[in-house]
From TrEMBL:
This is Phosphopantothenoylcysteine decarboxylase/phosphopantothenate--cysteine ligase. The keyword Lyase applies. The keyword Lyase applies. It comes from the Bacteria. Its EC number is 4.1.1.36, 6.3.2.5. InterPro entries: CoaB-like_sf, CoaBC, DNA/pantothenate-metab_flavo_C, Flavin_trans-like, Flavoprotein. Keywords: Decarboxylase, Ligase, Lyase. It comes from Lysinibacillus parviboronicapiens. Pfam families: DFP, Flavoprotein.
Length: 336
């Protein structure tokens, strides 16, 4: 594999599994460095990670061993991929809120490498609305997840919350770096999703109908294909805010591929999104510029059974399946 993997270990009972993960990743040919939170060091001594990774283990932001570099920036730049495994509810909450008060969280904010988060916690913690909110925020920020599996938890409960097995995580990492499965690697994808509102006056808004499932599935599939994919705007976003946010993203990522899946209002006087300067797919919305593909459906896309792309019929009832089909179609077109 010959890739640089930074493993960030936070303080859950599953830290012992992270030691096995270092071993599996190293056997697969990865160069692994490990960073630990203070809580993680309560569970396993850093020496175990040092021996397994054959590298120093990092945990103190202010312990600058090499005066030529700042360690956390150096590691953030060194990594081809960062794994946070196990990811505690605490570290998830900090990252979702931009808090950088230790070496792990500081490095996570300093990196531009893809970051995969592997939550592991008690089933009730995982189901807590605050944790769900933070995970949703991280998903919207473009983070990928290695979902916890179900099973017997160390706390005595049975349910979702177990850190995925090291063999499985290693297989996902190998797959990620295999060129075949990553046709969107290095590409940025922007997607709008769901309902959009427009103000009529100080007291009234008009909002379109949409559930946002298609847009979210398109982002998830783009990520699975290796893209840096972002949801632009929120479900129910104001059209003016959506336009500003899209322009901001377009300035930051001038080569971005854009999928406009949000249902924008059609009432007179509503401003239109500009797709100029992007290769864009639209779903029949009025926009400024020309799309490379327009998906046609009888009803609004979120509520349709079928859609048509250049005469090809796609099933829409299963959002994930539709997203796979659409990306396959788009990538075939790009390859031509
Ligand atoms: C025995 C024990 C097991 C724990 N297991 C978990 C866990 O699996 N997941 C979790 O999110 N927190 C767990 N915690 C709580 C975290 O250690 C605690 O929230 C800590 O502040 C996390 O710090 P960190 O995110 O900086 O590593 C556990 C605590 C103890 C004492």
């Amino acid at each position: 594999m010959n890739k640089n993997i930074l493993l960030c270990v936070s303080g859950g009972i599953a830290v012992y599994k992270a030691v096995a993960l270092v071993s599996k990743l190293s056997q697969a040919g990865a160069n692994v460095k490990v960073m630990m939170t203070a809580s993680a060091r309560q569970f396993v001594n850093p020496l175990s990670f040092q021996v397994m990774s054959k590298n120093d283990v990092f945990f103190d932001t202010f312990d600058e061993k090499d005066s030529h570099v700042i360690a956390h920036i150096d590691l953030a730049d060194w990594a081809d991929l960062i794994l946070v495994a196990p990811a505690t509810a605490n570290v998830i909450g900090k990252l979702a809120n931009g808090i950088a008060d230790d070496m792990v969280t500081t490095t996570l904010l300093a990196t531009t490498a893809p970051v995969w988060i592997a939550p592991a916690m008690n089933v009730h913690m995982y189901d807590h609305p605050a944790v769900k909110r933070n995970l949703a925020q991280l998903a919207a920020d473009g983070y990928q997840f290695i979902e916890p599996s179900e099973g017997f938890l160390a706390c005595g409960y049975v349910g979702r919350g177990r850190l995925e097995e090291p063999e499985k995580i290693t297989a996902l990492v190998k797959g990620f770096f295999s060129p075949k499965s990553q046709p969107l690697a290095g590409k940025t994808v922007l997607v709008t999703a769901g309902a959009v509102s427009v103000s009529m006056d100080n007291q009234h808004v008009i909002r379109t109908k949409a559930n946002g499932k298609i847009g979210v599935a398109l982002v998830e599939e783009a990520k699975a294909l290796g893209a840096n994919a972002f949801l632009v705007g929120e479900h129910g976003a104001d059209i003016y805010e959506l336009i500003v946010e899209l322009e901001h993203y377009k300035n930051q990522h001038p080569d971005a591929f854009f999928i406009h899946a949000a249902n924008t209002p059609t009432i007179e006087g509503t401003p239109k999104l500009s797709i100029e300067g992007t290769r864009a797919v639209t779903f029949g919305q009025e926009v400024i510029g020309k799309a490379i593909l327009t998906v046609v459906s009888q009803d609004w896309i979120d509520f349709s059974d079928k859609a048509e792309v250049s005469g090809q019929v796609m099933v829409v009832t299963n959002a994930e399946q539709f997203a796979k089909s659409l990306w396959t179609y788009v990538l075939q077109g790009e390859a031509k």
